[in-house]
Amino acid sequence: MDQSKTQTNLPELLVINPSPVFIIHQQQFSQKFKLLKAYESPLSTDLFLQTNAQSTKALICYGKSPVTTNILNLLPSLQLVVTASTGFNHIDLDKCRSRGIAVANTRDVFSEDTADIGVGLLIDVLRKISAGDRFVRSGNWTANIQYPLGSQLGGKHVGIVGLGNIGLKVATRLEAFGCKISYNSRQKKPVPYNFYPNVGALASNCNVLVICCILSVETRHMIDKDVLKALGKDGILINVARGPIVDEKELVNFLAEGEIAGAGLDVFENEPKVPQELYSLDNVVLTPHRAAFTEEAFSSAFQIILANLEAFFSNKPLISPV
Amino acid sequence: MDQSKTQTNLPELLVINPSPVFIIHQQQFSQKFKLLKAYESPLSTDLFLQTNAQSTKALICYGKSPVTTNILNLLPSLQLVVTASTGFNHIDLDKCRSRGIAVANTRDVFSEDTADIGVGLLIDVLRKISAGDRFVRSGNWTANIQYPLGSQLGGKHVGIVGLGNIGLKVATRLEAFGCKISYNSRQKKPVPYNFYPNVGALASNCNVLVICCILSVETRHMIDKDVLKALGKDGILINVARGPIVDEKELVNFLAEGEIAGAGLDVFENEPKVPQELYSLDNVVLTPHRAAFTEEAFSSAFQIILANLEAFFSNKPLISPV
């Protein structure tokens, strides 16, 4: 089969910047669509859109490839925006609505995996798994060096900050380990957990905080000096949401000074930059923003994106409109 | 208060070799008992017992400090053996029974923590938490080096080998993550999980094996070449039971050759020796036999041991006789 000939008959799909899901499934996308890759062009994005995408009807984006008013203005034929993510606040939804541009997301395919990483990081910090692995690999165990005791997960009072899809899944998992669950959220929810309208009060009453909320103007640096102080010397912070929700400079100080007991961090303020002061600490576990990164979740996301695009190009209803 | 004078009035407690729980709570024991420490004496154990322990009524032991017929024969006044463990097959129970020596254990204080380590190791292997932590600390993330996808815990078919206290707790925890549970055990149990009378068949039908059984003549090297082959290239082995249940040499070969996908190991055949071939593998997580090592479990164990000893010396019924 002549690939290049086939490509020209395929519907166009614009990719301004590629999401991890797109990168992993790029070949499959290229079999179904003629890909317009702005990021591979020597032209500026604006010029690329003006030159190559004036008749383009569909665009795929993600959190780090926002769809702004400016971009929408440069795409007069656009009828569909698909995001390779659950969240869609990187898309100018009002402008899309007013132009009649449809928007689709990947549903809730990443929340189970994100909750799993949250629980995994907590077990790891309490039970010193990564630190224990370093201890074994360094040969210290064979040298009969003593290793400190861990701390029990069962009985811990865990405060979930943001009880959405992910927060709820963290809660149900931790209940199976015998944890007591409380939460902070914009409003009280119909759940059997204690509600704290104030995150500082939640921190005061919990051994562990698990950050699961969205990043917004309200939540930026919400976990500040006061909250960390309220969490206290025996407290543990887990962040599987977004780095800037935590005042990272303060967190590093609290960890270095032993003013909180430990942290499990999948996200950071200036990724992929991680504060070097954390590298030498045994009471922190650092993962490279991998909460949603499983083969299965990426495959599910790909299937949903593809189903939306195929529905759109055959004039059928979208699978997951937002 | 004159400590030395007080000590002489305290009841005697014989310690042939100190358990981790005894070491951590040694000071508290020494406030309540006159400790006879065979392990600190220049005398051989036999000679120490013959010289210093002829009137000793109580002994504290643990798995690595067995109470054999020989030891019992050297202790004519012994009336109580307390073990700092749940298991007691290191104690010659028949001989104790025939001599009227009471035996007490620490109840089931370690099984929750052991189950937690089992789940923590599994999440870690699937989601590459320890490897991710190494990746971040090495600066590779900041250098924008790509990191592979993990594998989803939800939907995995997990086979529990040995459905006792620990195995059951691993099962209920993993159910909360959306895993499907099967098990192998000496006999079928009244549980809602698939029973496989044969561990090879269990391995063939599962993505993950979690070893939770006791070490016995029957279970030594039960996880052999055939079982690992049945587990297969995508399979993961977790061992929180005892090292010799697995043929470690075969396991190392299977891991090095990619014939199974990964392993989380808290126990090894010749602890604290760990096969050096494992040190360079990113798909294994190695912890230094820490499954039961939390402050809370050790404190609970100490309280139960103390309660048994105090009951014995005041002629009250033991708290946890076996």
Helix proportion of residues of chain A, in percent?
Answer: 25-40%
Summarize model confidence as the mean pLDDT of chain A.
96
Q: Look at the structure and give the CATH class of the largest domain in chain A.
A: Alpha Beta
User: Count the helices of chain A. How many?
Assistant: 13
Shape estimate of chain A: elongated
Q: Distance N terminus to C terminus of chain A?
A: 37 Å
How would you describe what is shown here?
Two copies of one chain form a homodimer. The first copy, chain A, is of the alpha/beta class. Chain A has two domains: 126 residues, 3-Layer(aba) Sandwich (Rossmann fold); 176 residues, Rossmann fold. Chain A contains 13 helices and twelve strands. In chain A, the strands form two sheets. Chain A has a seven-stranded parallel β-sheet with strand order 8-7-6-9-10-11-12, sandwiched between helices. In chain A, strands 2-1-3-4-5 form a five-stranded parallel β-sheet, with helices on both faces. The longest helix of chain A has 19 residues. The radius of gyration of chain A is 23 Å and the shape is elongated. The N terminus of chain A is likely disordered. Chains A and B meet through helix 7, helix 8, helix 9 and helix 13 of A and helix 7, helix 8, helix 9 and helix 13 of B.
